[in-house]
Structure formats: structure tokens, C-alpha cells
């Protein structure tokens, strides 16, 4: 399923009155199912205290429910205001291991302008799992979710 198809499905549930939480959970589910190389898919929401908090996810449970900005790949993405694709987590000095099986990680920020609401974090058991097509797909969904966050929060922080 392409990023556009996922966004169309999210728009359908949004028009039916789904809450932001329901839209986020559906986005995680659709992304996770869209690619057999996506072994753990979740959303970390950014709170005003500069802590990322785990929201909906699919995959093995993780101890990393709270991540400080600047810590690990997820926290670094926020601190540096950029998406991060780690083809080989064993070469990432700041990697926080969620699973011994994880070989690569993708973090795409959910943001509108300079405002970061959250991020999509995807882990794979495969090395170099995230090609340009996969990144573009996740970026499209992140852009859709940024608009949903902006609408739900009036553009403000959570």
C-alpha cells in the first residue's frame, strides 16, 4: 500500500469522526502491514518537557517508553530536526536497542514547519531495509499526521 493510499484511508476515518488517537493507531497499523520489512512500527509523541512518549505501536514490547530529546536515534532526530535512516544500527553510536533482532531503523518526524508533534519510528530485522520508496511512503503519512495534529491541537503542543 502506497503512502497516498494510506493517507486516503486515514482521511476516510477522519471524515467519519475518528479521534486523533484512532487516526494514529490506524496509521501505525496500515504502515506496519504495508511492508514486510517493517518489524516494529510506532509513534513517539513529543511533549513540552522535551520527552518523547510512546504512543500506538505494533511489534515486540519495548522498554523505551520515554526517550529524552537528544538520546538515541529517536531523540537525535528531534534534537537535530531531521529524519534519520540508519541502515545498520550496529554502526550507530547513539542507538538504543529495543530488540536484539533490529538491524536498521527509520525515524520520520511528524512536523509542520518548525513545530515537531511526534515521529514515526520503524525498526527492521533486515540491514538497509529502508529504500527511497519506503522513506517517501512514511514521509507522506507523517505529513498527513502533522496536519491531523495541527487540527487537533490548534497548532499547539500536546
Q: Which key features would you list for this structure?
A:
158 residues; alpha+beta; Beta-Lactamase; 6-stranded antiparallel β-sheet; 4 helices; 37% helix; globular
**Terminal Cα separation, in Å?**
30 Å
Q: Strand percentage, roughly?
A: 25-35%
Q: Please tally the helical runs, counting DSSP H or I stretches of 4 or more residues.
A: 4
CATH superfamily: GAF domain
String of helices and strands: HHEEEHEEEH
Radius of gyration: 14 Å
Report low-confidence residues grouped into runs of 5 or more: none
* CATH class term: Alpha Beta
Strand runs, count = 6
Per CATH, the architecture is: 2-Layer Sandwich
What percent of the residues sit in helical stretches (DSSP H or I)? Answer: 25-40%
State mean pLDDT (0 to 100 scale): 93
- Note the overall shape: globular
Instruction: Quickly give the structural class.
Output: alpha+beta
Describe what you observe in this structure:
The chain has four helices and six strands. The protein has 158 residues and is of the alpha+beta class. The chain has a six-stranded antiparallel sheet. Helix 1 packs antiparallel against helix 2.
Topology of helices and strands:
Blueprint: H1 3-15, H2 20-34, E1 40-47, E2 51-58, E3 66-68, H3 72-79, E4 84-86, E5 104-112, E6 115-124, H4 132-153
Antiparallel strand pairs: 1-2, 1-6, 2-3, 4-5, 5-6
Summarize, please.
The protein is 37% helix and 26% strand. It has 158 residues and is of the alpha+beta class. The chain has a six-stranded antiparallel beta sheet with strand order 3-2-1-6-5-4.
Amino acid at each position: 500500500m502506497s503512502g497516498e493510499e494510506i493517507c486516503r484511508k486515514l482521511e476516510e476515518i477522519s471524515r467519519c469522526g475518528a479521534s486523533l488517537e484512532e487516526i494514529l493507531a490506524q496509521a501505525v497499523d496500515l504502515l506496519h502491514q504495508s511492508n514486510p520489512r517493517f518489524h516494529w512500527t510506532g509513534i513517539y509523541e513529543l511533549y513540552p518537557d522535551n520527552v518523547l512518549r510512546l504512543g500506538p505501536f505494533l511489534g515486540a514490547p519495548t522498554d523505551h517508553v520515554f526517550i529524552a530529546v537528544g538520546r538515541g536515534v529517536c531523540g537525535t532526530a528531534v534534537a537535530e530536526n531531521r529524519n534519520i535512516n540508519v541502515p545498520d544500527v550496529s554502526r550507530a553510536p547513539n542507538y538504543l536497542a529495543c530488540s536484539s533482532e533490529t538491524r536498521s531503523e527509520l525515524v520520520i518526524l511528524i512536523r509542520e514547519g518548525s513545530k515537531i508533534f511526534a515521529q514515526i519510528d520503524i525498526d527492521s530485522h533486515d540491514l538497509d531495509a529502508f529504500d527511497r520508496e519506503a522513506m517517501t511512503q512514511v514521509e507522506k503519512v507523517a505529513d498527513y499526521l502533522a496536519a491531523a495534529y495541527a487540527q487537533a491541537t490548534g497548532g499547539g503542543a500536546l
